[in-house]
Amino acid sequence: DLVNQVFVFPRETKDSYVQLRVKPEQPLLNFTVCLRSYTDLTRPHSLFSYATKAQDNEILLSKPKPTEYRFYVGGQFVTFRVPESFSESEHACASWESPTGIVRFWLNGKPWPRKGLQKDYAVGAEAVILLGQEQDAFGGGFDVRQSFVGEISDVYMWDRELTTREVGAAMYNTPSPAPIFGWRNLPYKIHGEVYLK
Questions:
Q1: Which residues contact 97 (CB under 8 A, 6 or more apart)?
Q2: Does the pTM of the predicted model rise above 0.90?
């Protein structure tokens, strides 16, 4: 249980990240991923990277700039424009459903307009899941200019779409329904210079 703790990524590197030691049982047709980040980076950086052998950006949540989140499914992406937050952490959640391709995005519990992506796609299950680096190859291919510097916490993933009320619960680490993995029971391995504080 990591509640009230954060992963600190103290500096730019090409070899520091947190690997989440979990594997979905089968391909995902619906999912939601949530996390909290705190950074003053203005360059592009990766938050959550889920890569399969077939597709390095199978699921990716990244920030190309302070006023934009980019969310990938199966190598294609949609963009959500957000206000720039100064000296505050941001809680972001993104969900996707295969039958419609609808993507939902929440920032600090508030829903953004829905968008669409990869209708009828299936997200592969054999994945490497990393925080703090973007995979340009399966489990590797890192670029120091996409590395995360700052703090990441409250990471959760579900194999279904959440409601806005459920996103609110995740923000306060009281997730319901039960996630595939989450901050209250997170199997992880630190590589390089990342600290749990």
A1: 29, 30, 161
A2: yes
